[in-house]
Amino acid sequence: MKAMILAAGLGTRLKPVTDNIPKALVPIGGKPMLEHLILKLKAAGFREIVINIHHLGGQIIDFLVANDNFGVKIKISDERDYLLDTGGGIKHAARFLAGDDEPFLVHNVDIRSNVDLKAFYNHHVATGPLATLLVSKRDTSRHLLFDKDNKLCAWHNRDTGEIKSFFSDLDPQKYAGYAFGGVHVISPRLFEWMEEWTGKFSIINFYLSVCARTNIQAYFPPGVQVTDVGKPETLR
After folding, report:
1. Contacting residues for 223 by C-beta, under 8 A, at least 6 apart
2. 113 with 181: CB under 8 angstroms?
3. Angle, CA 213 vertex, CA 211 and CA 219 arms, to 5°
4. How many CB atoms within 10 Å of residue 159?
5. Which domains are present in the chain?
6. What's the predicted TM-score (pTM) here?
7. Residue 208: pLDDT band with limits 50, 70, 90
């Protein structure tokens, strides 16, 4: 099984900690958050991992070399010349992730959860959508909206009332609102839908642009807990 870790972020929310260290190497309980995630992926059966890098990316490469890649096959998707955001970063790594029919898991490096990643991956394989998104009922004003079949339909800002959707006259009260957990399983067919998308772009904006024409599903397992540790208060 293949996975991609999004580790290229600038870590601006964790400044000044990230002035001299990439966010992926910020320690949690004495170990870098990247190490925690690699070991979790390895335990779930993922043996090929792509990691994208940008800010102080050389430190990540040195860290992986020093630890012999933790016994898994790791490829580096280098974005040190230009940071491509989540969607652009995934597309830039297509040479490692495409080429067969095997889905791949994408995981933000600063997300911690109690999700069984193998069960999540197997759920996607069994259901077969273009992408399956881990979601939760986290307290946030910005939600993704899903219909009764758990299919993505829109993005909604509850505070401002702003809606992003290709569905006209969408009533957010008729949809289930969830927070995206920064973890998703994706079919390599995704890259065919991305042909006209170039450079830097958000994966969520991409999903919203295609969800009316294809199947982007929610995954909301019982008891799911997702924490974004890329902020000082949650990192503590």
Report:
1. 114
2. yes
3. 40
4. 9
5. 2-235 (3.90.550.10)
6. 0.94
7. very high
Type of residue numbered 150:
N
Residues recorded for the chain: 236
What is d(CA 178, CA 155) in angstroms, rounded to the nearest whole number? 10
Range from 15-29, 88-102, 120-134, 167-181 carrying the lowest mean pLDDT:
167-181
> Would you state the torsion angle of the CA atoms of residues 191, 194, 199, 203, taken in this order, to the nearest 10 degrees?
-90
CA–CA dist 162, 84 (Å, integer): 25
pLDDT digits (tens, 9 = 90+) for 23-76: 999 999 999 999 999 999 999 999 999 999 999 999 999 999 999 999 999 999
Residues 217-225 have a mean pLDDT of 94
Structure tokens at 45: 């059966």
3-state SS of the chain? CEEEEECCCCCHHHCCHHHCCCHHHCEECCEEHHHHHHHHHHHCCCCEEEEEECCCHHHHHHHHHHCHHHHCEEEEEECCCCCCHHHHHHHHCHHHHCCCCCCEEEEECCEEECCCHHHHHHHHHHHCCCEEEEEECCCCCEEEEECCCCEEEEEEECCCCCEECCCCCCCHHHCEEEEEEEEEEECCCHHHHCCCCCCCCCHHHHHHHHCCCCCEEEECCCCCCEEECCCHHHHC
Tokens 């993005």 -> residue: 155
Q: What is the C-alpha to C-alpha distance for residues 132 and 185, in angstroms, rounded to an integer?
A: 5
**167 within 8 A of 212, measured Cβ to Cβ:** yes
Q: ∠ CA 23-27-29 to the nearest 5 degrees? A: 150
